[in-house]
Amino acid sequence: MTLELPEDMDELVYWTARKIDDGNVKAWTYRGDCPECGKAKMGKPKNKDGKAKIRAKFYECPSCKFTIDKEEYEDTLEACIIYTCPHCKHKGDTKIPYIRKNFKGVKSLIFECESCKEKIPITKKMKKPKK
Ligand SMILES: [Zn+2]
Ligand SMILES: [Zn+2]
Question: Residue 130 pLDDT more than 80?
Answer without folding.
Answer: no
